[in-house]
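haha ok so turns out i had the wrong file open the whole time. this is the CORRECT one, sorry everyone. sequence first:
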Amino acid sequence: MANLALIMNISREELEKEFTYRTSRSGGKGGQNVNKVETKVELIWDFMQSALFTDLEKEKIANRLSNRINKENIFQVVAEEERTQLRNKEIAIKRALHLINESLKEVKPRKPSKPSKASVRKRLDDKRKQALKKINRGGGFKF
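then structure:
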């Protein structure tokens, strides 16, 4: 995943130029470092203003990543796992590129299928064996 190429041959560098970052102090491990250094990184991307994607691709991104997009159509990814701002920035970039790449992939339509006769027979046999096991446990039916 080091060189994550996007579907439409858009380079990582071109896309990173459109990203903006906001930093803040984060909780978690780090001791006194947490109270002094702004290590939490929030990656912000206004994908609707992007010149790298077509309107159709922007629509796909909006639909598939709707849980990460706010009312102003801003895509956000937050990283605060590591102790350094640089590592958190790298994590946020990697995560954003992965999400964008996944949102642009075509989803194959599901082909409906029926279970085979052998699998149906096996399921019913297993069900019958289980029922007999339970009947034998309780000493049969009680009237």
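The first strand starts at residue 20 and ends at 24.
again sry for the mixup
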